[in-house]
Design brief:
- There is one protein chain.
- The chain has helices spanning 6-25, 37-40, 68-81, 115-121, 151-161, and strands at residues 44-51, 54-61, 97-104, 108-109, 128-133, 136-140, 175-179, 181-185.
- It has two domains: 6-105, Glycoprotein, Type 4 Pilin (2-Layer Sandwich); 108-180, 2-Layer Sandwich (Dna Ligase, domain 1).
- 30% of the residues lie in helices and 25% in strands.
- By secondary structure, the protein is of the alpha+beta class.
- The longest helix is centred in the first third of the chain and has 20 residues, at 6-25.
- The strands form two sheets. A four-stranded antiparallel sheet has the order 2-1-3-8, with helices on one face. The chain has a four-stranded antiparallel sheet with strand order 4-7-5-6, covered by helices on one side.
- The chain has five helices and eight strands.
Length: 186
C-alpha cells in the first residue's frame, strides 16, 4: 500500500486543521489544495490531537471504509469534538493543538496459540493491535508502544481499555488482529 507523499501529508494536515477551525468559527474551510489518487484510496486512519504535549483527542476508523480525505475530515472533527474522554475543543485551544494523522494498513488476524506465542509474534513499534472478545474491542496504534514498550504491559493496558479484564490477551477466545500505520504530524 502506498503512503502519502510529503506534499500529500502537508495537504492532509492543513485540511484537518481547516475543518476543525471551520467547525469552531463557522467560516467555510477551503477544500484540500489537491485531491490525489492516494487520497481517494479507501484507508483506515486516525487523527490524534495533542495540546501542550498531552493527548487531547484521538478517534479513527480501523477498517478502510472511506476515502482517505473523507476519513481525515470525519476523524479530525470527531477527535476535536466527540472523543468521550475530553470536553469538546474550544476556539481558545485550537492554536495550541498539534495534529497527527495515522494511515493504516488493513487489519489481519494474527494466528497465535496463546499468551506466550502472541508475545513472540507481536512486533513492538510496528504492529497496531486490535483485541476483540465478544462484543468488546479495543485498539492501540503502533505509536502507543513508545509509552508502553513492554509487550505484556502493552497488552494488559489494551485489555483494560476495552474493559475485557487485564489478561484477556491470554484467553484463546480473544481475537487478535494487527495492522501497521504510517503516521505524520505538523
Amino acid at each position: 500500500m502506498s503512503h502519502p507523499t510529503a506534499k500529500e501529508q502537508e495537504i492532509l494536515l492543513k485540511f484537518a486543521r481547516d475543518v476543525i477551525i471551520e467547525a469552531l468559527t463557522g467560516r467555510t474551510a477551503p477544500p484540500p489544495a489537491e485531491i490525489t489518487d492516494m487520497m481517494k484510496e479507501k484507508r483506515g486512519c486516525f487523527v490524534t490531537l495533542h495540546k501542550d504535549g498531552d493527548l487531547r483527542g484521538c478517534i479513527g476508523t480501523i477498517e478502510p471504509i472511506a476515502e482517505l480525505a473523507d476519513a481525515v475530515r470525519e476523524n479530525a472533527l470527531n477527535s476535536a469534538f466527540k472523543d468521550p474522554r475530553f470536553p469538546p475543543l474550544t476556539e481558545e485551544e485550537v492554536s495550541r493543538i498539534h495534529i497527527e494523522i495515522s494511515v493504516l494498513t488493513p487489519p489481519e488476524i494474527l494466528e497465535q496459540s496463546g499468551g506466550e506465542d502472541l508475545k513472540a509474534k507481536l512486533k513492538p513499534g510496528v504492529h497496531g493491535v486490535i483485541l476483540s472478545k465478544g462484543w468488546r474491542q479495543s485498539t492501540f496504534l503502533p505509536q502507543v508502544w513508545e509509552q508502553l514498550p513492554e509487550t505484556e504491559t502493552f497488552l494488559t493496558h489494551l485489555c483494560q481499555k476495552g474493559q475485557m479484564g487485564s489478561d484477556c490477551w491470554k484467553d484463546p477466545d480473544t481475537v487478535v488482529k494487527t495492522y501497521e500505520a504510517f503516521y505524520f504530524e505538523e
